[in-house]
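Closing statement on the flavin-adenine dinucleotide sub-project.
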Amino acid sequence: MENFDGKTFDVAVIGGGPAGISAAVYARRGNFSVLVLHNGGSALEKAHKIENFYGFPGGISGEELYKNGLLQAEKLEIAVEKAEVTHFEVLSDGKFEILAGDKKFLSKTLVLATGNKKLKPDIKGLEDFEGKGVSFCAVCDAFFYRSKNVTVIGNGRFALSEAEVLSRTASSVKILTNGQDSSELKKLNKTFAVDERKILEIQGNSKTGLVGAVVFEDGEVLQTDGIFIALGKAGAADFAKKAGIMLEGDKIKTDEKMQTNIPGLFACGDTTGGLLQVSKAVYEGTLAGLSAISYLRA
Ligand SMILES: Cc1cc2nc3c(=O)[nH]c(=O)nc-3n(C[C@H](O)[C@H](O)[C@H](O)COP(=O)(O)OP(=O)(O)OC[C@H]3O[C@@H](n4cnc5c(N)ncnc54)[C@H](O)[C@@H]3O)c2cc1C
């Protein structure tokens, strides 16, 4: 696995939207080395026109504002990498090791600015079985599914990485895309069976009271002992569950300086909930960047 120039960054930011770039800009202007990892799909890119953000009398398209942010970061000599992060962990020396595809990055601090990802797909019965066979974290729960048949609901690199973790313990792993675009998965996956049908509902096992089956819209039933949710990219809450970061619902819990419960790990923007607006993302990104500086200087 590639180690990014063997270099340890002072600040790594996951997310290239207004929150992540603001954190990166402040940290860089404090003269620290900064890495931004992003992979498109920012809420901002979906915004046709932003007309309520300071300084744009005619408004600006979200896509242009997003591109401008990345350009601004590059001009400040921030390392900007287009890469999807699937996992990170805190090493014994307190540094962060971040995995994105076949690349590995190291940093002394980490800012999570991955935006607002809805953790749960809207599937009938799913909520009823949370903690009873429906899981959101393969690393946390794979052990419960030793020699069992499990399914991953997902459609990209994140689903694949969860399936790989599960395949070390489960006897079979199948990926269900639930009708979502699976072009990326098709390119990357050479190992797992994939079913692209839309799911109608999750049913229980009448004997155990745990998850028993997935029912597809065409009426076919697939027996399964466990269902792992990994749709789209890993979002802040997905990372949080693996890393032990405190959540409120599926939003990251921080103090007023954007510090999470893990030292050196900050979160900002839509990941923390509240007002989902560019101005709030910029404000929290600023705080997170400044807090990372204070942490590094302490
Ligand atoms: C249709 C629409 C219209 C909107 N209109 C307005 C408006 O008029 N005014 C306003 O103020 N706000 C508006 N918003 C909200 C605004 O876009 C968001 O509040 C803002 O973009 C949040 O910024 P953020 O940096 O927290 O997250 P985002 O902008 O969502 O950025 C998230 C970043 O994280 C990256 N990322 C996520 N997961 C991973 C991963 N696993 N690996 C690597 N990178 C990852 C993404 O690539 C992206 O760079 C609108 C949103 C939408 C959807």
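The CA atoms of residues 51 and 155 lie 33 Å apart. With this model delivered, the sub-project is considered complete and its resources will be redirected to Aim 3.
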